[in-house]
């Protein structure tokens, strides 16, 4: 995958600064992310096109997806710009002023968005996993590469980039002792269990009982609450914008939740077996003290 990066910050970030970040995140993709996930992308900074792009040539869209660096916190204008010039193309936004509010470098936010764009380009994947407060209850987790550990970062060539989850994180077993995120316990916290939450992060999922997308953080985690509030206020992420365009999972989830006969097919039998394994794993897990920090009928980060 080739991801076009468009510097739309009105000169607040120079192309040289953006190029430094692009090189660092490309190294992160190649040396840190790809060996675990076996999927890959390269970022490339595209040329400036000004305020009035040529709708026929679309010089921004040389890649398979696009991430905009945007200075003004105006989600509606940003979404309208994308829909007018690149409708249907997987995308992300990095609002540099919001990164300042979050107290993190915009390069961490760019790394976060790039990794999640690779993992779920259309923001439409869900993974069955336990409810954090009730491990015996199954919900449909968002397939996010960074949200659970999004308050953690490290440096590549002197540039800060985001921590990210590893494939074991999205497995039904608790994975006690497994390495479920790239940094592991290096940040001075206990190892992260599968479908767990690190301090400062949060997770989102669709609950088929409430028919709502819920966001949960560790109980009393003010940093995670602040992060969610800032993002939701500005509808910062591509997920928020996808839902503004009408994307929904309800029918998909309801179809998955229908009971299946073990005689229906080998695939159905396999699903039933995995469901049994998840229930058995639930006996290993303990309820986590979490609190709901948001809910909506449509998903947002």
Verbal overview:
The strands form three sheets. Strands 5-6-9-10-11 form a five-stranded antiparallel β-sheet. Strands 2-1-3-4 form a four-stranded parallel β-sheet. Strands 7-8 form a two-stranded antiparallel sheet. The chain is an alpha/beta fold. The protein has helices at residues 15-37, 75-86, 96-102, 106-119, 222-234, 238-244, 250-257, 266-282; strands at residues 2-8, 42-45, 65-70, 91-95, 126-131, 134-142, 153-156, 159-162, 203-207, 212-218, 290-296. The protein has one domain (2-296). It is globular. The chain has eight helices and eleven strands. The two termini are 23 Å apart. Helix 1 (15-37) packs across helix 4.
Q: If you compute it from the alpha carbons, what radius of gyration comes out, rounded to the nearest whole angstrom?
A: 19 Å
Gap between N and C termini, in Å?
23 Å
- Count up the domains: 1
Please state roughly what percent of the residues sit in beta strands, choosing from under 5%, 5-15%, 15-25%, 25-35%, 35-45% or over 45%.
Answer: 15-25%
> How is the biggest beta sheet arranged?
5 strands, antiparallel
Mean pLDDT: 78
* Outline type: globular
Which percent bin holds the helix content? 25-40%
SS element count, helices: 8
Strand order of the largest sheet: 5-6-9-10-11
Oligomer: single chain
Number of strands: 11
**Spans of at least 5 consecutive residues with low confidence:** 53-57, 241-249, 251-257, 259-274
Order of helices and strands: EHEEHEHHEEEEEEHHHHE
Helix-and-strand structural type: alpha/beta
